[in-house]
């Protein structure tokens, strides 16, 4: 990695594997959702984070339009478990998740999407490539996609990575 | 991550960003190539490594057929720079890279593809999903794909991860 903090990639992977992280999008009606999947590495000689969002999600239509998002990771001593459950079960179509649920949309540094102010580690990302998941293994397909709605993969450059507080 | 060694994901990302790693495939005519791109994380609640291989590569046709590969990372005190340059410039169509170039195809534990015996850290991977890169950012496209030949992305489960020596 080039621009990220030492250990940031490990903290991202640990977060999504064990508790979750917040993926936030901006525009006229900002939203955040919980992600438990993703990856981080290098493509096109840039730091790249890959996230997966189902087309049925409210976040999907915003991300398609805005092309930018942030990922915010809670601190170890403030895991935000209740907030992660909330953001992962309620749709932004039905409720403004940044109002009255302990999640603050704070300004990011380099992208229009907000960061989650209660978190400790933030990645600001610009989409470089989007792709559908084709040719899925039959061992994965029925369990995670019984009704279709296959995730869109977004490969996005990490344009900023920092801690707050 | 679930099965990988502590710090393995960081060592993978560092390797591809700074020196490169070997991606090896098996079958009747095993081959290895140098990769400088990739990512690691979690999808479908599994440890997943993503690699990118251009359709023009000899490795591509083997990977399409076999569906398995390994990634081998050199030790810090034995960076294998000459071997990485070699494996990244010569095609397996023209030469057997595992003969006479200081690279040994050693048996893997869980997949048919070999590992590179001279390396220190190994990931054994089974492809779960392959996809073409669509909707590429115009800032990326002309520089890396002036003649098309867009990479195929392989999202693969890490079924084993270990050190040798």
Walk me through this protein's architecture:
Two copies of one chain form a homodimer. Chain A is α+β, with helices and mostly antiparallel strands and 165 residues long. Chain A has one domain (8-163): Pnp Oxidase, Chain A (Roll). Helix content of chain A is 20%, strand content 37%. Chain A contains four helices and ten strands, in the order αββββαβαββββαβ. In chain A, the strands form two sheets. A seven-stranded antiparallel sheet of chain A has the order 2-1-5-8-10-4-3. A two-stranded antiparallel sheet of chain A has the order 6-7. In chain A, a hairpin with a 2-residue loop joins β3 and β4. At the A-B interface, α1, β3, β4, β8 and β9 of A face α1, β3, β4, β8 and β9 of B. β8 of chain A pairs antiparallel with β9 (134-136) of chain B, so a sheet runs across the interface.
